[in-house]
Amino acid sequence: MNEQQRKEQAQIKQDNHPTDVKSGKDNIDRIKSTTSDEMIAKYFQANYQPPDINKARKRRKEDVQFHYDFSIPEDMANIGKGKKFLIRTYGCQMNEHDTEVMAGILTEMGYESTSDTNDADIILLNTCAIRENAENKVFGEIGHLKPLKLEKPDLILGVCGCMSQEESVVNRIMKKHQHVDLIFGTHNIHRLPHLVKDAMFSKAQVVEVWSKEGDIIENLPKVRNGKIKAWVNIMYGCDKFCTYCIVPMTRGKERSRRPEDIIQEVRHLAAQGYKEVTLLGQNVNAYGKDFGDMEYTFGDLMDDMHKIDIPRVRFTTSHPRDFDDHLVEVLAKGGNLLDHIHLPVQSGSSEVLKRMNRKYTREDYLELVRKIKKAIPNATLTTDIIVGFPNETEEQFEETMTLVEEVGFEAAYTFIYSPREGTPAARKKDDVPEEVKKQRLYRLNELVNKQSGESMKSYENKTVTVLVEGESKKDPDVLAGYTEKNKLVNFKGPKSSIGHIVEVKITEAKTWSLNGEMVEKTVEVN
Ligand code: 5AD
Ligand code: SF4
């Protein structure tokens, strides 16, 4: 930990006295007594600076520091021996990957994983703040876990991830959910050994949330979910400041990992037999823009990925604004760079896009799509769309519908706008009734389903390559995997094909998946 981190840590740390050993009774007392409002308010004024959009906009690039020296302190290496952990993950792939890191750290501390809450000695909720319903789910789960905590006072219950970067959430947990032992933010994951130890021995709630924009901690241990596909972070944070989005506040500023670290990680995964990597970032196209010492962009990184002997490379998620010609050129080389591109558009109306601060127009987006399709004629495009942004008119919504048709998206994640505290859009008055928003979402989904169904239908009687991931959840005799274009395929085939790329002839198309029969051949070349 450096001096700066030490200072940041002091911002929100509550009563950490590892020598002050607590008992089960202390825990019960804490859960039953609620901390007073004044105490919390005073605490926040003195110690905690919540993520702030104005400050966030003035972020300085040079503040990012790289750390390669993570290790579990000796006195914590065996703290979990004979104990079990459970991490429940909400939200995006970034969170899923953070869970793999936390699982890695806990495993190195001697803990074993369990999927049974009754068996767990530590339960962490890795939360998502992107929409209100994601937050409601987490508060529901915190409530459900209270009887278990009362029954097992030594259980450590922790809340981490994006919600814990929000002052209002931390406040609410401190006031109303005293049975939560530990709250820590997205910049504090590497501090997990210390935080667990503090939670074990402290009588009070342990809260550590750094509002700092974040460093890059390399060499964190990971327990990956499976041995076929892997997530690889290439950058953290977001500096785009779309007016509806909480991410720039919860995940800090854009900061890129060094290319050599990413390349080494992917090479290592390939050597271990992984068949697919997905490069992760909130806005991968901004990769490298923060390097002060060299010109190296996302296109350059993808070009280096192209040279690595791993069959499939995906990336998520892209911002149309930063999707440059060099990247299109590199992706057109094909090979292990797949021709499925997820390109969130959010709205088809230039006026709404302006209010969203997306920094491109409908025409810019369509022009980019034309470029991609020209360079990669078979490209499949998918997207994210928000309906019911404040004051969206019927005509503006119709522009979204026509754009969906014009581009021919084969799938889309669609959402009703959800106001997030602290974001500029949340301060706007909104004249669109909830019922109208729901209808718009319904109409949009009908259109997306229709387009997805049609694209699926075009695969009937064709042969596709599938990376076989395992048995289907519904029927163990059926295997399941994904095509290069990320279509789910269920088919009958030998179990020995799990973990391999095989050819499957499609016999039947459904709206969101394909059924088929394996053609006796393994294809595993780039
Ligand atoms: N309300 C609704 N959807 C949102 N998204 C991000 N913020 C919000 C919000 N406040 C959607 C965007 C983004 C996806 C990950 O979630 O479409 O691309
Ligand atoms: Fe949020 Fe994505 Fe916009 Fe960044 S680019 S602010 S993560 S929607």
UniProtKB/TrEMBL annotation:
<comment type="function">
    <text>Catalyzes the methylthiolation of N6-(dimethylallyl)adenosine (i(6)A), leading to the formation of 2-methylthio-N6-(dimethylallyl)adenosine (ms(2)i(6)A) at position 37 in tRNAs that read codons beginning with uridine.</text>
</comment>
<keyword id="KW-0808">Transferase</keyword>
<dbReference type="InterPro" id="IPR006463">
    <property type="entry name" value="MiaB_methiolase"/>
</dbReference>
<dbReference type="InterPro" id="IPR005839">
    <property type="entry name" value="Methylthiotransferase"/>
</dbReference>
<dbReference type="InterPro" id="IPR006638">
    <property type="entry name" value="Elp3/MiaA/NifB-like_rSAM"/>
</dbReference>
<keyword id="KW-0408">Iron</keyword>
<feature type="binding site">
    <location>
        <position position="238"/>
    </location>
    <ligand>
        <name>[4Fe-4S] cluster 2</name>
    </ligand>
</feature>
<feature type="binding site">
    <location>
        <position position="128"/>
    </location>
    <ligand>
        <name>[4Fe-4S] cluster 1</name>
    </ligand>
</feature>
<dbReference type="Pfam" id="PF04055">
    <property type="entry name" value="Radical_SAM"/>
</dbReference>
<dbReference type="InterPro" id="IPR002792">
    <property type="entry name" value="TRAM_dom"/>
</dbReference>
<keyword id="KW-0963">Cytoplasm</keyword>
<feature type="binding site">
    <location>
        <position position="162"/>
    </location>
    <ligand>
        <name>[4Fe-4S] cluster 1</name>
    </ligand>
</feature>
<dbReference type="Pfam" id="PF00919">
    <property type="entry name" value="UPF0004"/>
</dbReference>
<dbReference type="InterPro" id="IPR058240">
    <property type="entry name" value="rSAM_sf"/>
</dbReference>
<dbReference type="InterPro" id="IPR038135">
    <property type="entry name" value="Methylthiotransferase_N_sf"/>
</dbReference>
<dbReference type="Pfam" id="PF01938">
    <property type="entry name" value="TRAM"/>
</dbReference>
<dbReference type="InterPro" id="IPR007197">
    <property type="entry name" value="rSAM"/>
</dbReference>
<feature type="binding site">
    <location>
        <position position="92"/>
    </location>
    <ligand>
        <name>[4Fe-4S] cluster 1</name>
    </ligand>
</feature>
<dbReference type="InterPro" id="IPR023404">
    <property type="entry name" value="rSAM_horseshoe"/>
</dbReference>
<keyword id="KW-0004">4Fe-4S</keyword>
<keyword id="KW-0479">Metal-binding</keyword>
<dbReference type="GO" id="GO:0035597">
    <property type="term" value="F:tRNA-2-methylthio-N(6)-dimethylallyladenosine(37) synthase activity"/>
</dbReference>
<keyword id="KW-0949">S-adenosyl-L-methionine</keyword>
<comment type="subunit">
    <text>Monomer.</text>
</comment>
<feature type="domain" description="Radical SAM core">
    <location>
        <begin position="224"/>
        <end position="454"/>
    </location>
</feature>
<keyword id="KW-0819">tRNA processing</keyword>
<feature type="compositionally biased region" description="Basic and acidic residues">
    <location>
        <begin position="1"/>
        <end position="32"/>
    </location>
</feature>
<feature type="domain" description="MTTase N-terminal">
    <location>
        <begin position="83"/>
        <end position="201"/>
    </location>
</feature>
<keyword id="KW-0411">Iron-sulfur</keyword>
<feature type="binding site">
    <location>
        <position position="245"/>
    </location>
    <ligand>
        <name>[4Fe-4S] cluster 2</name>
    </ligand>
</feature>
<protein>
    <recommendedName>
        <fullName>tRNA-2-methylthio-N(6)-dimethylallyladenosine synthase</fullName>
        <ecNumber>2.8.4.3</ecNumber>
    </recommendedName>
</protein>
<comment type="similarity">
    <text>Belongs to the methylthiotransferase family. MiaB subfamily.</text>
</comment>
<feature type="region of interest" description="Disordered">
    <location>
        <begin position="1"/>
        <end position="34"/>
    </location>
</feature>
<feature type="binding site">
    <location>
        <position position="242"/>
    </location>
    <ligand>
        <name>[4Fe-4S] cluster 2</name>
    </ligand>
</feature>
<feature type="domain" description="TRAM">
    <location>
        <begin position="457"/>
        <end position="520"/>
    </location>
</feature>
<dbReference type="InterPro" id="IPR020612">
    <property type="entry name" value="Methylthiotransferase_CS"/>
</dbReference>
<dbReference type="InterPro" id="IPR013848">
    <property type="entry name" value="Methylthiotransferase_N"/>
</dbReference>
